[in-house]
Amino acid sequence: MIVDFTFSIMIDSNLAESIINNIFLSSLDGASKSGGCIAYSDNILQLIPNTLHCKKDEIIESDDAWLYWRLDLNVFPIGNVTVDNQRKVAHQIISLLEKHGACAELVAEFEL
């Protein structure tokens, strides 16, 4: 069985993208800037606006509201990674985002 170790984290936050990237760079041990992205733990983190972003009340109150949150953090491996590594990275990122007042939802073929 082939497991896709790429994952996304949907983010709802009022923080600017540059602030979130700075939080990653200053808080994730070993994170470094790589072009417009961040390299961390054999992965590239790419923060982009969610093209489906919407603030309509009927969507915000639904169970699938995370689909329409403002930002999408794509995380994809650039080295040999394990599912345990990816779970650890996802958990660290989500915890960090929540610590800074953001809502975060993992979108992956694996669970935390």
Description:
With 112 residues, the chain is α+β, with helices and mostly antiparallel strands. The chain has a single domain, classed as Alpha-Beta Plaits (2-Layer Sandwich). The chain contains three helices and six strands; from the N terminus they run E-H-E-E-E-H-E-H-E. The chain has a six-stranded antiparallel β-sheet, covered by helices on one side. A hairpin with a 2-residue loop joins strand 2 (32-34) and strand 3 (37-40). The mean pLDDT is 89.
**Overall CATH class:** Alpha Beta
SSE ordering: EHEEEHEHE
Distance separating the two termini: 19 Å
Beta strand count: 6
Rg of Cα set: 14 Å
Report the portion of residues in β strands: 25-35%
CATH topology: Alpha-Beta Plaits
Number of helices: 3
Q: Biggest β-sheet, characterized?
A: 6 strands, antiparallel
